[in-house]
Each structure stands twice: as structure tokens, then as C-alpha cells.
Amino acid sequence: MKIEVDGNGININGKPEILLCASFFYFRIKKKEWRARAKLIAGLGYNCVDVYFPWNYHETAPGEFDFSGERDLDYFLSICEENNLYVMARPGPYICSEWDGGGLPAWVLCNPGVRQNEPAYLRQVERWYSRILPLLAHHQHSGRGGGCIILLQLENELDFFDCKDVGGYVERLRDMALSHRITVPLFTCAGQGDIKRSGGLTGGVLPAYNFYPSFTDPAFDPALAQYAEYLQKKGAAFLVSETSKSHHILKRELLAGAKLLGAYNQVGGTNFGYSQSVNNWGDPLSLISTLYELDGMIDNLGRCTPEADEALLFSEMLRIYGTALAKAAFCKMEPPFPSADETLCATNALALADGNGFLLCARSVRETPAVLHSRLGRQEFELSLAAGEAVALPYQLKTGGCTIVFSNNEIFSLKPLVFIERSKPFLLLEKGGKQILVTQSGCYEGIEVSFIPKEEAITRIKAGRGLTLTYAKALAPRPVTECLAGRFVNRGEFAKAESSLFSANQIWYGQVEYRILNPLGETGDLFFQGVADFLTVHCGGETVFSGLCAGGDVILPGSGQVRALVEQWGHSNFDDARRRSLRIASPRGVEKIFRIRSRQELNRWSFTEVDSFSPTVKIEPCETDPHISINHWNSTHEPLFAAYYTEIVPQAQPGEELVLVLEGMEAECNLFINGSFVARFSESRSSINVTGFLGPGRKNLIALCVRKRNWAVQTGRLWLLRVIPCEFELRRVDHRQVYSTPLEPARLPLRLEQGKQYALCLETPLERDAYGLAGGSGYRATVLQAGEVIARIVAKSEKIAQAGSHNSSQFLIPGVLGPDRKLYFFLEAMEDGCFEFAIDEGVYEND
Fold first, then answer.
1. Is-contact 393 359, C-beta < 8 A?
2. pTM of this prediction exceeds 0.90
3. For 274, what's the count of Cα atoms within 13 Å in the CB-facing half-sphere?
């Protein structure tokens, strides 16, 4: 027997299946909790889990792999098998998942060709695949029985990325998978609905979709219908590999014909260690928090949320309809009851197998509860829906010697006939050619009918499954006031370095301190080019800067002794051109450190219009061209293509370099020197090193070709910097040295001074998992337990966007049975502030 995925749906060993799939990320959950989580997922009715396998979690240093301890995949997959959970395996190489570099190791990201059909990159991918795929092949499902892995995903949401040769790239990944004896179906997923650009049209590879709609979007259902019709025409299954955790969204997808329903991040987790990323969920940049938990059905403490009750109801519906639903097909039909309002209406429908009738999707996209007053023929009824709710209503459903012509409530049981009463009961039955209107529980023509509230339905499901669930309940956290504290002492040794980039110094995470050398005693400002992520600069004993740089440039005073600290939050898990550090291959650290010897604003410009905005445009100066600022020229053209040009005679001494910096840029801007295109200024790059393009001591023509949406958009101010590269030494800032820092008794809240680093120790006599809540302002913190980093926190601030959880200052404290229950904190104050701390041990409310 085998796994078949085609236009008829998903068949596993000949049995039609709907895969209700929850994300279950072993790398975000402690090993001691894996078995309990898997048991709970299965108990809530999920029959499948999707599992990313982050490359950089297992290749811990170049060429060094670890599949032991917390990284023991064989043990994890065995637990899935024990709990009868199918696995959708997702080994990348790129996974996204709001994880450092999208799972790509830093030593891979720093080389060209990432996520392209490039031999050098693919050789590194083969190194990863050669280790991970044999492990997965051992657990893949086969006709001999056993094995949990039933699908394997190649890459991830490639349609979000500018891959030059999608087909060739995905073919190479496919061939690698096959060469490592992967026999289960392969697929790719589209993040923007483009299965062509995601590789889903590659031979031997199935297409799948990732959907993250707003529940208030009325266009989502018609879009689902379009995808369903296309896939029906092609004879392909409708696979939704990732989507919202809401079971009402899942229901809308199910009733459009989806056979795989991948509820993403349904099980909360933690980004332990230095695994956090930066991404584009802010304006545009945000930091992904340590806690990775957003309204899933299971929280970080293993407790259920209200979404777990929805999981019980949804999975029970799948069980009730069984094979008829697993083999159902999307069908276009006019809703049998009218609605004049698209925000509250019937949308898509499924034809159940073997002519057994239909299931209609009725949903509300309103933000408040609503009631639809409608009719079936001449019979009037009400349909009551909560905000964003969706229901699967039976229509012409044949069961038990009668036909359910229609009901405004979902079926809970077919034998006996039980409905979940959300709306005032309306049920139209047909038996022996006679129609029977039912509006309350009772016996009708020998048919027992009952209506029960949602809460009773949930209670019955739990009883039937033998479930006792533990629910999360809010509790006021317990403040901690006693601690040990002291000024952090970095005992690392400085060493001379040629490059200021982390990767060039074999530094893949954490924080680095630079000591700027100044043998000539120069007093010019320092130019830090391309800083990611956090920068703190001390000049002459004073803190002159501390903040998040997003890959941007920083100019600061440079007299006296200068020390700079750069902390990497994480590589981007996405690829976004709006900020330098949001590019997935953007390096961390500092690209260049210069001392500025002179700074000249270029302000004598001439103007001419051009016919396009491109690197090949011809800029032809004329002696009649007007002489104006690069921010002027009134025109009715929209957009306005313009060229501003000037001549300069730069002077540079041996060893000096020339850099152009465009401040305050609003327009798109291409730089030309002596008639040749050099580079583009952008939001992500405001400085360009032009040393190799300018001829010192002679005239050079500088031109800016701009595209403005209208004439009033500012080009900015262009500066020419004459700089010399700085010599420097660097050393790691090992946050584990909090353990060796002298500490004294102190009380919280602890006052913090900008630019200073602190070490703290707190006693936490916790035998079971709990939440820590870091309060106060103005700091970054690294939290350690038993020598391991368990959290990184940035105090809440309007200046820094954070995402990944509702409370970025909250983190998981794993329960420890041994003696080492202390928490250590490394703190760095970005501004004057304070540090507070509290513990929420969690209230566990049983059924």
C-alpha cells in the first residue's frame, strides 16, 4: 500500500484521509515535554503534525552536526509514531518560521547564491540533506506498516523570494531527496498563492498553499473557490500546508475542498538560545521575541486555550462525516437561502461522496455577533453567528432513512440525530416523500432529534475520548524583589582583526566589542557603515549612542578612546529590500568602520529631465540646463523622471576612501559617475563607496537619476566623505560570564544607567515550568539557566517593534528538579531605565 495524493484527495494505505495538521516544533519545546504535547495534540483530534527541521539548529558549527539530547530527532519522531500522528516533514533548506536566518546557517548566508540554483550553495545544501534526509527516510510511512512521515516539503514559500531559476532549483532539491531514498510525496508551498514561482509545477512535486487571511475578509472565500476550481481541472488535491490557527478559518478552507489543513503554530513554543530573528512585521522591521506563541490551542506551559475547544468540535465533525467528507469534492452551487449582505452569508459548498448530500459554508466576517434573517423556500429562519464564525450546514443530506433537507445548525451526531444549537433551531427533514419542520427537540415520524448547546457538545466529546484537559487561567504575577547584582565584567582578550563583520571572524551569534585604535590621535568623527543589529558606542568614557540600527549607517564623535559594542539579534528570516538587515543574506556586525577626515555637501546642481528610470538611461548635460537644488523642479509629470548633475574634483591621500551619503532620501535614486551607472541609493542603503569610480585630482561628473511620484518629493542631501579605514581590535562578549561576575545583594527594581552592563542572579525554586516577566525600561537582557541561554528580552519601547507573542517581555522558565534553579541575567542599558521581574507559576484549571 502507499500514499496517494491526487484529485480524489489523500489516500493512505487505501483509506481516504483529511489531514488536520498542527505545527509541532521540537526545537521550541523541551524534550521532557515532547510526549505530553504529542498526546495532547492527538487527544484534541489532530491526526498530523507539521515539523520544520532547522538546518542551523543541527549544524552547530561549520561541518559539526548534533542530533542528540534536545536535538534527538529519532526520539521525537518515535513519539509521533507512538501517538499515531502523521508527520509533514519540512527540512528546508530554508524554513522561514521566524527563526534565525530562516534556518540557514550564518556561514551559508554569508556566501553568494543563497536559495538559487547555484552549485556552491547546493553543495552546502547537499551536506545538510545528506545528514537529515536519511534520518527522515527511516521514519517515512511505507506499505510495510509503521513510519509517521507521509509528506516532505522542499524549500518554503519560494514565491516570496527572487529565485532566478525556480524550476532548476527545485529540481535539484527533488533529485537530492530521491537520491536519499525519500519515497513519500514531495511538495512545495506558495506563500503568495503563486505555485509556479514556488516550484509547485515542477515534475514529481505537488503544489500546496499557505493562507493567512483576516477573518474579516469577504474576498477569501471566492479566492478559495478559484484555487479549488483550478486544482479540480488539473486533477490535483487542494493542500493548505499553513494557515491560521482559527478553526473557523480552517472550516472555510475545508468547505472549499482542502484535504490538508495545516494550522500553523497551534502549539506554543520558545526561541531558546540565540535563535531569534529580525523580520518585516514592524514598520518595517521588528524583532521576533523569545516566546513564540500567538493564540494557539496549547500554550508554552502545555495548557489548553479556548481554541482547544474549537479543535474538539472541528475534529469531531471530521469523524462524524468520515469517508464521505474525506472523498468530498468542491462544487459550485447557488446558496439555497438568500442573503443580501456578503459579510454574513453562505459561500462555498462540498458535495459529499456517493451522492450523500452537501455541506454548505456559512460565515460571518463581521467583528461582532450577527443574525441573518433568511428563508428556505417559504420557511423563514435565523442564522446566528459569532464574530468571524463559520459553520458547516447540512443540505440534502441522506442519513438513517431520511433526508436532512437543511438545518441552520451543525450536526453533532447522525445516530441519533443531534445538532449543536447556535441558532434558534430550524430543521427541515424529508421522509417517505413528506417534509417535516423541526424547531425543537423531540420525536418526529420515529426520528429522534435533539439540540444541545455548544458547551454540552464539548463535554460529550471529552467524555467520549476520555479527556481531562487543563486550561490556562490568568493570574497576577508574583513580583521578585531580592536579587544579587553587579557590574558585568568581560574577561575576554582583545585581538587584532582585519574585518568588522561577525562572519569574517567566525562569529555566528551574540555580541562583540570593538576597540578602535587611533595611533595618529585624530579627532574626526567615526562612520559606522552597515550596523546590525544593536550598537552602543562609548567615546572618552561617555555613552554617545545606544540603539537598534537595522543595518543602517551611524556617524558619531570619535575623539578619545572609543569602544563600540554590536549585538546580533538574529539574521532575517525573510528577504525584504526595505532595510539592509532585512535582506536574508545581510551580514551582522559592522560592514566598515571609518574615520571621517572631511565632509562636503554637494549643493551645486544642474537639472535635466530624462525619459526613464533605469541603469541604462542616457543623461545628456546641456549648457542651458537650470542650476537648482536636487530637491527642486516643479513639474506636472507623475511620476517625474529627473537627473541632477554636478562636477567635483575630489582630493584623496593614499589609503583614504571616498563615500557618498544621501541623507533624507524620499525618491528612488540611481547614482551615475562619469556616465556609468554605479549603484542605487535605497531605504536599505544610504551610503555608497565610490573610491574606485572617482578619479582624484580631476573633474568627475556626478549624476543622480531620480524617480519621484510627484515634484515635491525630496531627493535629500548628498555628502562626500573622505575617510580612512579604522584599525581596531575585537573580543566576544560572552554572556555566560555573568556566572563569574562578582555580585552583591540588591533589590528590584534595579536602576540602570545608559551604556552600562550588569549581571543579576535570581533564586527561582521552580520544579515545574513557569513564566518569567521582565518589566522596566531601557534595556536588553539575556537570560541563562544552568549555563544555557533560555531567553533574550528587549524592554518594551515605542521605538522598537517586536512580534511573535502578545507579550515580548514574557518567557518560559523550564522547571528544574536538580539544585541549579537560579536564573542569571546579562543586562545592557540602552538608556537610563530600570529592571523589574516577576514570576507567573500558572494556574491550572481542570475540567
1. yes
2. yes
3. 17
